[in-house]
Design a protein that fits this description.
Blueprint: E1 9-11, H1 19-27, E2 32-34, H2 60-67
Parallel strand pairs: 1-2
């Protein structure tokens, strides 16, 4: 709440996590957490293991090709 709103999501630093870390993130009350594992398919039951695509230096067209 330091920025005027509650932070509900967690990003694992450097994408590093294990089951102990996931357990602590859940216990802290976060809704879910983001990994650095590439991908897009998500399941509600996997909210603490959300995949993502890194945009980096890709152009908009290159990124769309990646996620299409």
């Amino acid at each position: 709440t330091h920025v005027g709103y509650t932070v509900n999501w967690f990003a694992y630093p450097y994408g590093t996590y294990d089951e102990r870390v996931v357990s602590e993130v859940k216990r802290a009350g976060y809704v879910g957490a983001i990994t650095t594992i590439p991908g897009a398919w998500q399941y509600k039951s996997r909210f603490y293991y959300i995949l993502r695509y890194r945009v980096g230096t890709k152009t908009g067209k290159e990124f769309l090709a990646l996620v299409s």
